[in-house]
Amino acid sequence: MGLFVQLFAFDVIGEVTFSKRFGFMDTGSDNGFFAQVKNVLRSGAWLRQIPALYWTHDFLSPIIGNHFSVTARHGRLRDFASQAIEDRKTHGSDHQDILAKLLEVQKQRPNEMNDANVLSMATTNISAGSDTTAISTRSVIFHLLKNPECKRELVEDIDTQTKEVKLTKPITLEQTNHMPYLQACLYEGLRLHPAVGMSLPRVTPRGGVEIDGHFIPEGTVIEANPWVVCRNTEIFGDDVEAFRPKRWLKTGDRADMERVFFAFGQGARGCLGRNISWMETSKLIPTLFLHLEVELTDPKAELKELCWWFVKQEGLFVTLRPRSKVH
Q: Where does heme bind (predicted)?
């Protein structure tokens, strides 16, 4: 299941960005793309912590080669994006996808948005927009399967919505927005496992700033970690390690929880693709549990987690059986 959701996320981000799927869901294979994304994340994690490595690598690369995978983002993903951009410029398209928006900005501001910028943004959109969604979806599925009562409540809600003809095929985003327990499961899954595992930096402004009674001088790099922020017991309660979706259904606490919900970052530097990722997961989860009985192959199994900027999971193995139709 872990591989399936990443194949799904890649195909969707290909459609959203270029109106062209990668075809991974059709073949059941990533054709080597995922390994490249992993290398990009590995190099990005190193460079995030030690930026000077980039220039050191650039100077030594004639001797040591691409040792840190610093140029990993210039491989097949970039080639795919480059070909898609070239096809669009040659043949045109009436699709209103992300590439169309980028090219429109380039047309309006050619001095600020050159071909290299368009290619870089399109390539980044693929890697950043697929891994994060797959990580989030895995977390929601895993925690639902590890908590049978939560899974049962969600499936009952999906079945009820289906019987009352409130869900169409395919399920729409608007319909999922009117499913409070589903939305609570998504929030709780992402709270327990934010995709980003490394701290997000900010630089204090001129004149410094006071935070929690402590003065921090200007120009200081301060950071907040999503995994820590999303486990604040003052906000989420003492059971922060528990998967309890109903905590998000308490009206009085909801505003505070959303204010510190850091799975997508916050403020001006929040994730630009948040709505796309949320849409994918919102539609996939109810569709999956509507049509299939999903269980962990080993109910006692835990996921292996590896943090290279994103905290990726391994070991989500499930057993699938068709469900009888809900009338």
A: 271
Question: Using an 8 Å Cβ cutoff, are 223 and 202 in contact?
Answer: yes
Tell which phi-psi region holds residue 65, choosing left (phi > 0), alpha (psi between -120 and 50) or beta: left
* pLDDT, tens digit (0-9, with 9 covering 90-100), for 17-36: 999 888 899 999 888 888 87
- The segment with the largest mean pLDDT, out of 89-98, 145-154, 266-275, is 145-154
- Name the pTM for this structure: 0.90
Looking only at the bridges linking them, the beta strands covering 318-322 and 209-211 are: unpaired
271 assigned to a ligand binding site = yes
Positive or negative, the CA dihedral 158, 161, 162, 163 is positive
Rg (CA), the chain: 21
Tell which residue, 171, 251, 208, 196, has the closest CA to residue 45.
Answer: 196
Work out the angle at residue 244's Cα, subtended by the Cα atoms of residues 316 and 288, and round it to the nearest 5 degrees: 45
For the chain, the straight-line distance linking the first and the last C-alpha, in angstroms and rounded, comes to 27
Question: Between the CA of residue 124 and those of 95, 118, 129, what are the distances in Å?
Answer: 20, 10, 8
Which residues have a Cβ under 8 Å from the Cβ of 315 and sit 6 or more positions away?
Answer: 2, 301, 302, 303, 304
Question: With b meaning 16 or more CB within 10 Å and e meaning fewer, what string describes 214-253?
Answer: eeeeeeeeeeeebbebbeeeebbeeebeebbbebbeeeee
